[in-house]
Amino acid sequence: MADWMELEKEYFMRTVERAPLTIVKGQGSYVWDESGKRYLDFVAGWAVNSLGHCHPAVVEAVRHQAGELIQTSNHYYTIPQLQLAELLVKNSSLDKIFLCNSGAEATEGAVKLARRYGKLHLNGAYEVITATGSFHGRTLAMVSASGQLKYQTPYTPLPSGFINVEYNNIEAIKKATTSTVCAVMLEPVQGEGGVNVPSPDYLKEVRRWCDEKGIILILDEIQTGIGRTGELFAHQSFGIEPDIMSLAKGLGGGLPIGAIMAKDKFSVFTYGEHGSTFGGNPVTCAAAFATMKFIIENDIPRNAFDMGIRLIQRLERLSSKHTGLITDIRGKGLLMAVQFSGDFAKTLAQKCLEAGLLVNDVKPNALRLMPALNITADEIDEAVELLDQAITSLDANR
Protein backbone atom coordinates (compact mmCIF):
# COMPACT_ATOMS: atom_id res chain seq x y z
CA MET A 1 0.00 0.00 0.00
CA ALA A 2 1.39 3.39 -0.97
CA ASP A 3 2.23 5.91 1.74
CA TRP A 4 -0.02 8.65 0.41
CA MET A 5 0.89 11.14 3.13
CA GLU A 6 4.59 10.84 2.29
CA LEU A 7 3.81 11.37 -1.40
CA GLU A 8 1.92 14.53 -0.50
CA LYS A 9 4.92 15.82 1.46
CA GLU A 10 7.21 15.14 -1.48
CA TYR A 11 5.14 16.65 -4.27
CA PHE A 12 2.69 19.24 -2.92
CA MET A 13 3.26 22.85 -2.00
CA ARG A 14 2.69 23.43 1.73
CA THR A 15 -0.64 25.23 1.52
CA VAL A 16 -3.00 22.97 3.47
CA GLU A 17 -2.48 21.28 6.83
CA ARG A 18 -4.36 18.10 6.08
CA ALA A 19 -5.97 15.81 8.64
CA PRO A 20 -4.18 12.45 8.85
CA LEU A 21 -6.79 10.66 6.78
CA THR A 22 -6.81 9.37 3.20
CA ILE A 23 -10.40 9.07 1.96
CA VAL A 24 -11.00 6.51 -0.78
CA LYS A 25 -14.81 6.23 -0.89
CA GLY A 26 -17.86 8.29 -0.02
CA GLN A 27 -21.58 7.49 0.07
CA GLY A 28 -24.22 9.77 1.52
CA SER A 29 -23.03 11.22 4.83
CA TYR A 30 -20.20 8.71 5.25
CA VAL A 31 -16.67 8.25 3.93
CA TRP A 32 -14.19 5.38 4.23
CA ASP A 33 -10.41 5.36 4.49
CA GLU A 34 -8.05 2.91 2.79
CA SER A 35 -8.27 0.47 5.69
CA GLY A 36 -12.06 0.35 5.46
CA LYS A 37 -12.84 2.45 8.55
CA ARG A 38 -16.03 4.48 8.23
CA TYR A 39 -16.42 8.14 9.26
CA LEU A 40 -19.49 10.35 9.57
CA ASP A 41 -18.68 13.43 7.50
CA PHE A 42 -19.67 16.77 9.03
CA VAL A 43 -17.31 18.74 6.78
CA ALA A 44 -18.89 17.71 3.45
CA GLY A 45 -16.07 19.01 1.29
CA TRP A 46 -16.22 22.39 3.12
CA ALA A 47 -20.00 22.65 2.60
CA VAL A 48 -19.72 21.48 -1.00
CA ASN A 49 -21.39 18.05 -0.93
CA SER A 50 -24.88 19.42 -0.48
CA LEU A 51 -26.53 16.04 -1.14
CA GLY A 52 -23.75 14.01 0.44
CA HIS A 53 -21.19 11.90 -1.35
CA CYS A 54 -22.01 10.38 -4.74
CA HIS A 55 -25.72 11.15 -4.70
CA PRO A 56 -27.42 9.00 -7.38
CA ALA A 57 -28.96 11.97 -9.19
CA VAL A 58 -25.57 13.71 -9.45
CA VAL A 59 -23.68 10.55 -10.40
CA GLU A 60 -26.15 9.75 -13.17
CA ALA A 61 -26.05 13.31 -14.53
CA VAL A 62 -22.23 13.30 -14.62
CA ARG A 63 -22.05 9.81 -16.13
CA HIS A 64 -24.51 10.68 -18.89
CA GLN A 65 -23.03 14.08 -19.74
CA ALA A 66 -19.43 12.81 -19.74
CA GLY A 67 -20.45 10.35 -22.41
CA GLU A 68 -22.14 13.01 -24.54
CA LEU A 69 -20.12 16.24 -24.38
CA ILE A 70 -17.42 17.37 -21.95
CA GLN A 71 -16.18 20.82 -23.10
CA THR A 72 -16.83 23.30 -25.89
CA SER A 73 -16.00 26.81 -24.55
CA ASN A 74 -18.60 29.56 -24.33
CA HIS A 75 -18.26 30.34 -28.02
CA TYR A 76 -21.17 27.93 -28.46
CA TYR A 77 -24.51 27.16 -26.81
CA THR A 78 -24.75 24.04 -24.65
CA ILE A 79 -27.93 22.66 -23.11
CA PRO A 80 -26.82 21.89 -19.50
CA GLN A 81 -25.67 25.45 -18.78
CA LEU A 82 -28.87 26.95 -20.20
CA GLN A 83 -31.01 24.54 -18.17
CA LEU A 84 -29.06 25.47 -15.03
CA ALA A 85 -29.32 29.20 -15.74
CA GLU A 86 -33.09 28.99 -16.19
CA LEU A 87 -33.53 26.99 -12.98
CA LEU A 88 -31.42 29.38 -10.89
CA VAL A 89 -33.03 32.55 -12.23
CA LYS A 90 -36.58 31.21 -11.87
CA ASN A 91 -35.93 30.21 -8.26
CA SER A 92 -34.21 33.41 -7.16
CA SER A 93 -34.81 37.15 -7.16
CA LEU A 94 -32.04 37.75 -9.72
CA ASP A 95 -32.38 38.09 -13.48
CA LYS A 96 -29.08 37.27 -15.18
CA ILE A 97 -26.24 34.81 -14.58
CA PHE A 98 -22.59 34.19 -15.40
CA LEU A 99 -21.14 30.73 -14.74
CA CYS A 100 -17.57 30.19 -13.56
CA ASN A 101 -15.56 27.56 -11.70
CA SER A 102 -15.26 28.52 -8.03
CA GLY A 103 -16.32 30.81 -5.23
CA ALA A 104 -13.24 33.00 -5.58
CA GLU A 105 -14.00 33.51 -9.28
CA ALA A 106 -17.63 34.30 -8.47
CA THR A 107 -16.83 36.98 -5.88
CA GLU A 108 -14.04 38.39 -8.04
CA GLY A 109 -16.49 38.61 -10.94
CA ALA A 110 -19.14 40.18 -8.72
CA VAL A 111 -16.70 42.94 -7.76
CA LYS A 112 -15.74 43.45 -11.41
CA LEU A 113 -19.42 43.79 -12.26
CA ALA A 114 -19.93 46.33 -9.46
CA ARG A 115 -16.90 48.33 -10.61
CA ARG A 116 -18.18 48.29 -14.17
CA TYR A 117 -21.51 49.65 -12.96
CA GLY A 118 -19.68 52.28 -10.92
CA LYS A 119 -17.73 53.39 -13.97
CA LEU A 120 -20.87 53.61 -16.09
CA HIS A 121 -23.40 55.01 -13.60
CA LEU A 122 -21.68 56.23 -10.40
CA ASN A 123 -19.11 58.70 -11.76
CA GLY A 124 -16.35 56.12 -11.69
CA ALA A 125 -16.92 54.90 -8.10
CA TYR A 126 -14.90 51.72 -7.56
CA GLU A 127 -14.39 51.00 -3.86
CA VAL A 128 -16.19 48.13 -2.13
CA ILE A 129 -16.96 48.04 1.59
CA THR A 130 -16.48 44.63 3.22
CA ALA A 131 -16.57 43.37 6.81
CA THR A 132 -13.96 42.30 9.31
CA GLY A 133 -13.98 38.53 9.74
CA SER A 134 -15.18 38.03 6.18
CA PHE A 135 -13.74 35.58 3.68
CA HIS A 136 -14.30 36.05 -0.05
CA GLY A 137 -11.67 33.84 -1.70
CA ARG A 138 -7.98 33.30 -2.39
CA THR A 139 -7.27 35.51 -5.39
CA LEU A 140 -5.12 38.53 -4.58
CA ALA A 141 -8.06 40.93 -4.89
CA MET A 142 -10.35 38.73 -2.78
CA VAL A 143 -7.65 38.39 -0.11
CA SER A 144 -7.71 42.19 0.02
CA ALA A 145 -11.50 42.12 0.23
CA SER A 146 -11.52 39.56 3.05
CA GLY A 147 -11.35 41.13 6.48
CA GLN A 148 -8.82 38.74 8.00
CA LEU A 149 -5.21 39.82 8.51
CA LYS A 150 -3.88 36.27 8.57
CA TYR A 151 -4.79 35.92 4.89
CA GLN A 152 -3.61 39.42 3.97
CA THR A 153 -0.26 39.86 5.72
CA PRO A 154 1.77 37.41 3.57
CA TYR A 155 0.81 39.24 0.36
CA THR A 156 1.19 42.93 1.09
CA PRO A 157 1.06 45.35 -0.59
CA LEU A 158 -2.50 44.38 -1.45
CA PRO A 159 -4.62 45.63 -4.35
CA SER A 160 -6.53 48.77 -3.37
CA GLY A 161 -10.23 49.38 -3.61
CA PHE A 162 -11.54 47.62 -0.50
CA ILE A 163 -12.56 49.12 2.84
CA ASN A 164 -12.86 46.67 5.75
CA VAL A 165 -15.26 47.79 8.49
CA GLU A 166 -16.64 46.12 11.60
CA TYR A 167 -19.14 43.34 10.88
CA ASN A 168 -22.71 43.75 12.13
CA ASN A 169 -22.25 47.52 12.49
CA ILE A 170 -24.38 49.59 10.14
CA GLU A 171 -22.87 52.85 11.40
CA ALA A 172 -19.42 51.67 10.31
CA ILE A 173 -20.74 51.13 6.79
CA LYS A 174 -22.38 54.54 6.75
CA LYS A 175 -19.20 56.22 7.94
CA ALA A 176 -17.12 54.46 5.26
CA THR A 177 -19.48 55.33 2.39
CA THR A 178 -18.00 58.06 0.23
CA SER A 179 -18.48 59.18 -3.36
CA THR A 180 -15.89 56.60 -4.47
CA VAL A 181 -17.82 53.62 -3.04
CA CYS A 182 -19.79 51.57 -5.55
CA ALA A 183 -20.84 48.60 -3.42
CA VAL A 184 -21.08 46.83 -0.08
CA MET A 185 -20.18 43.11 -0.11
CA LEU A 186 -21.19 40.88 2.81
CA GLU A 187 -21.75 37.24 3.71
CA PRO A 188 -25.28 36.85 5.16
CA VAL A 189 -23.63 34.56 7.73
CA GLN A 190 -19.84 34.57 7.95
CA GLY A 191 -18.53 31.04 7.41
CA GLU A 192 -14.73 31.03 7.55
CA GLY A 193 -14.87 33.84 10.10
CA GLY A 194 -16.34 31.41 12.65
CA VAL A 195 -20.03 31.10 11.66
CA ASN A 196 -21.00 34.61 12.75
CA VAL A 197 -24.72 35.39 12.51
CA PRO A 198 -25.63 39.10 12.34
CA SER A 199 -28.38 40.75 14.34
CA PRO A 200 -31.85 40.32 12.76
CA ASP A 201 -32.08 43.86 11.35
CA TYR A 202 -28.47 44.31 10.18
CA LEU A 203 -28.91 43.22 6.56
CA LYS A 204 -32.19 45.14 6.27
CA GLU A 205 -30.39 48.26 7.45
CA VAL A 206 -27.58 47.67 4.94
CA ARG A 207 -30.16 47.15 2.19
CA ARG A 208 -31.88 50.46 3.06
CA TRP A 209 -28.54 52.29 3.16
CA CYS A 210 -27.48 50.96 -0.26
CA ASP A 211 -30.84 52.00 -1.69
CA GLU A 212 -30.54 55.45 -0.15
CA LYS A 213 -27.04 55.99 -1.55
CA GLY A 214 -27.69 54.32 -4.90
CA ILE A 215 -24.90 51.77 -4.39
CA ILE A 216 -24.87 48.04 -4.95
CA LEU A 217 -25.44 45.33 -2.33
CA ILE A 218 -23.42 42.22 -3.15
CA LEU A 219 -24.17 39.12 -1.07
CA ASP A 220 -21.52 36.43 -1.01
CA GLU A 221 -23.62 33.28 -0.70
CA ILE A 222 -20.77 30.93 -1.58
CA GLN A 223 -21.13 29.03 1.70
CA THR A 224 -24.65 30.02 2.77
CA GLY A 225 -26.50 29.48 -0.53
CA ILE A 226 -28.19 26.39 -2.01
CA GLY A 227 -30.16 25.50 1.13
CA ARG A 228 -27.34 25.54 3.68
CA THR A 229 -29.04 27.84 6.21
CA GLY A 230 -32.58 26.48 5.89
CA GLU A 231 -33.70 28.62 2.93
CA LEU A 232 -32.62 28.20 -0.68
CA PHE A 233 -30.60 31.40 -0.19
CA ALA A 234 -29.66 32.76 3.23
CA HIS A 235 -30.78 36.32 2.45
CA GLN A 236 -34.38 35.08 2.23
CA SER A 237 -34.41 34.45 5.99
CA PHE A 238 -33.38 38.09 6.56
CA GLY A 239 -36.15 39.47 4.35
CA ILE A 240 -33.99 41.20 1.72
CA GLU A 241 -32.82 40.80 -1.87
CA PRO A 242 -29.30 41.46 -3.18
CA ASP A 243 -28.43 43.36 -6.33
CA ILE A 244 -25.63 40.91 -7.10
CA MET A 245 -25.05 37.47 -5.58
CA SER A 246 -22.18 34.99 -5.80
CA LEU A 247 -22.71 31.23 -5.52
CA ALA A 248 -20.46 28.15 -5.52
CA LYS A 249 -19.72 25.33 -3.02
CA GLY A 250 -23.02 23.40 -2.71
CA LEU A 251 -24.18 24.35 -6.20
CA GLY A 252 -22.41 21.51 -8.00
CA GLY A 253 -23.19 18.70 -5.58
CA GLY A 254 -19.45 18.01 -5.35
CA LEU A 255 -18.20 19.32 -8.69
CA PRO A 256 -16.42 22.70 -9.07
CA ILE A 257 -18.74 25.45 -10.26
CA GLY A 258 -19.53 29.04 -9.36
CA ALA A 259 -22.03 31.65 -10.46
CA ILE A 260 -22.54 35.41 -10.45
CA MET A 261 -26.19 36.46 -10.45
CA ALA A 262 -27.47 40.02 -10.85
CA LYS A 263 -30.64 41.99 -11.27
CA ASP A 264 -31.14 43.39 -14.78
CA LYS A 265 -30.19 46.92 -13.73
CA PHE A 266 -26.75 45.80 -12.59
CA SER A 267 -26.04 43.28 -15.35
CA VAL A 268 -23.77 45.67 -17.25
CA PHE A 269 -21.09 43.39 -18.68
CA THR A 270 -20.95 43.45 -22.45
CA TYR A 271 -19.09 41.35 -25.01
CA GLY A 272 -15.46 40.72 -24.09
CA GLU A 273 -15.58 42.38 -20.66
CA HIS A 274 -15.62 39.12 -18.70
CA GLY A 275 -15.15 35.47 -19.52
CA SER A 276 -14.02 31.98 -18.51
CA THR A 277 -12.63 29.10 -20.55
CA PHE A 278 -14.15 26.41 -18.35
CA GLY A 279 -17.07 28.41 -16.93
CA GLY A 280 -20.36 26.72 -17.71
CA ASN A 281 -18.67 23.42 -18.54
CA PRO A 282 -21.34 20.91 -19.66
CA VAL A 283 -20.40 18.23 -17.10
CA THR A 284 -20.32 20.54 -14.10
CA CYS A 285 -23.52 22.24 -15.23
CA ALA A 286 -25.24 18.89 -15.60
CA ALA A 287 -24.20 18.03 -12.05
CA ALA A 288 -25.37 21.41 -10.76
CA PHE A 289 -28.69 21.17 -12.59
CA ALA A 290 -29.31 17.70 -11.12
CA THR A 291 -28.33 18.96 -7.66
CA MET A 292 -30.52 22.06 -7.81
CA LYS A 293 -33.47 20.16 -9.27
CA PHE A 294 -33.33 17.56 -6.49
CA ILE A 295 -32.92 20.20 -3.77
CA ILE A 296 -35.89 22.23 -5.02
CA GLU A 297 -38.24 19.33 -5.80
CA ASN A 298 -37.58 17.60 -2.47
CA ASP A 299 -37.56 20.77 -0.32
CA ILE A 300 -34.08 19.99 0.99
CA PRO A 301 -33.76 23.48 2.60
CA ARG A 302 -36.62 22.50 4.90
CA ASN A 303 -34.70 19.41 5.98
CA ALA A 304 -31.64 21.60 6.64
CA PHE A 305 -33.82 23.87 8.78
CA ASP A 306 -35.35 21.00 10.76
CA MET A 307 -32.09 19.10 11.20
CA GLY A 308 -30.41 22.35 12.23
CA ILE A 309 -32.89 22.72 15.08
CA ARG A 310 -32.32 19.10 16.09
CA LEU A 311 -28.55 19.64 16.00
CA ILE A 312 -28.81 22.71 18.25
CA GLN A 313 -31.01 20.82 20.72
CA ARG A 314 -28.58 17.90 20.91
CA LEU A 315 -25.61 20.24 21.28
CA GLU A 316 -27.34 22.11 24.09
CA ARG A 317 -27.78 18.81 25.94
CA LEU A 318 -24.10 18.13 25.36
CA SER A 319 -23.25 21.55 26.74
CA SER A 320 -25.24 20.80 29.90
CA LYS A 321 -23.39 17.52 30.30
CA HIS A 322 -19.94 19.11 29.94
CA THR A 323 -20.57 22.13 32.14
CA GLY A 324 -18.54 25.22 31.27
CA LEU A 325 -16.75 23.61 28.34
CA ILE A 326 -19.08 24.78 25.54
CA THR A 327 -19.51 28.56 25.66
CA ASP A 328 -21.57 29.18 22.50
CA ILE A 329 -23.59 27.32 19.88
CA ARG A 330 -24.38 29.46 16.85
CA GLY A 331 -25.40 29.27 13.22
CA LYS A 332 -28.35 28.81 10.90
CA GLY A 333 -29.64 25.59 9.40
CA LEU A 334 -26.74 23.21 8.86
CA LEU A 335 -23.97 25.79 9.12
CA MET A 336 -23.12 25.62 12.81
CA ALA A 337 -20.25 26.42 15.15
CA VAL A 338 -19.57 25.10 18.62
CA GLN A 339 -17.32 27.39 20.66
CA PHE A 340 -15.29 26.19 23.63
CA SER A 341 -13.75 27.72 26.73
CA GLY A 342 -10.19 27.17 25.49
CA ASP A 343 -8.10 26.99 22.33
CA PHE A 344 -8.23 23.22 21.93
CA ALA A 345 -10.43 22.90 18.83
CA LYS A 346 -7.62 21.39 16.74
CA THR A 347 -6.95 18.69 19.33
CA LEU A 348 -10.67 18.05 19.65
CA ALA A 349 -11.05 17.72 15.88
CA GLN A 350 -8.36 15.02 15.98
CA LYS A 351 -10.22 13.26 18.80
CA CYS A 352 -13.38 13.40 16.69
CA LEU A 353 -11.52 11.86 13.75
CA GLU A 354 -10.31 9.03 15.98
CA ALA A 355 -13.90 8.48 17.11
CA GLY A 356 -15.14 8.40 13.50
CA LEU A 357 -16.47 11.94 13.02
CA LEU A 358 -15.07 14.56 10.63
CA VAL A 359 -15.36 18.19 11.79
CA ASN A 360 -13.56 21.45 10.99
CA ASP A 361 -11.60 23.48 13.56
CA VAL A 362 -12.61 26.83 12.04
CA LYS A 363 -11.13 28.79 14.96
CA PRO A 364 -8.66 27.85 17.70
CA ASN A 365 -11.63 27.66 20.08
CA ALA A 366 -14.44 26.58 17.73
CA LEU A 367 -15.51 23.65 15.58
CA ARG A 368 -17.59 24.15 12.44
CA LEU A 369 -20.26 21.61 11.48
CA MET A 370 -21.59 21.60 7.89
CA PRO A 371 -22.98 18.17 6.96
CA ALA A 372 -24.95 17.15 3.88
CA LEU A 373 -28.26 18.99 3.65
CA ASN A 374 -30.22 15.73 3.33
CA ILE A 375 -28.75 14.33 6.55
CA THR A 376 -31.09 12.27 8.73
CA ALA A 377 -32.11 12.64 12.36
CA ASP A 378 -30.28 9.42 13.24
CA GLU A 379 -27.08 10.78 11.67
CA ILE A 380 -27.42 14.03 13.64
CA ASP A 381 -27.75 12.02 16.85
CA GLU A 382 -24.80 9.82 15.92
CA ALA A 383 -22.61 12.87 15.27
CA VAL A 384 -23.36 14.39 18.67
CA GLU A 385 -22.70 11.04 20.36
CA LEU A 386 -19.30 10.86 18.63
CA LEU A 387 -18.55 14.47 19.61
CA ASP A 388 -19.45 13.54 23.18
CA GLN A 389 -16.96 10.66 23.04
CA ALA A 390 -14.27 13.00 21.70
CA ILE A 391 -14.89 15.60 24.43
CA THR A 392 -14.80 12.90 27.11
CA SER A 393 -11.52 11.60 25.69
CA LEU A 394 -10.11 15.12 25.60
CA ASP A 395 -11.13 15.76 29.22
CA ALA A 396 -9.49 12.54 30.32
CA ASN A 397 -6.16 13.65 28.83
CA ARG A 398 -6.15 17.31 29.89
TrEMBL record:
Modification N6-(pyridoxal phosphate)lysine occurs at: K249
Enzyme Commission identifier(s): 2.6.1.11
Coiled-coil ranges from the UniProt annotation: none
Keyword Cytoplasm: yes
UniProt GO BP: L-arginine biosynthetic process
Signal peptide per UniProt: none
Pathway(s) per entry: Amino-acid biosynthesis; L-arginine biosynthesis; N(2)-acetyl-L-ornithine from L-glutamate: step 4/4
Predominant location category: cytoplasm
Reactions performed catalytically: N(2)-acetyl-L-ornithine + 2-oxoglutarate = N-acetyl-L-glutamate 5-semialdehyde + L-glutamate
Keyword Nucleus annotated: no
Note: May also have succinyldiaminopimelate aminotransferase activity, thus carrying out the corresponding step in lysine biosynthesis.
Protein name: Acetylornithine aminotransferase
Species of the source: Dehalogenimonas formicexedens
UniProt gene name: argD
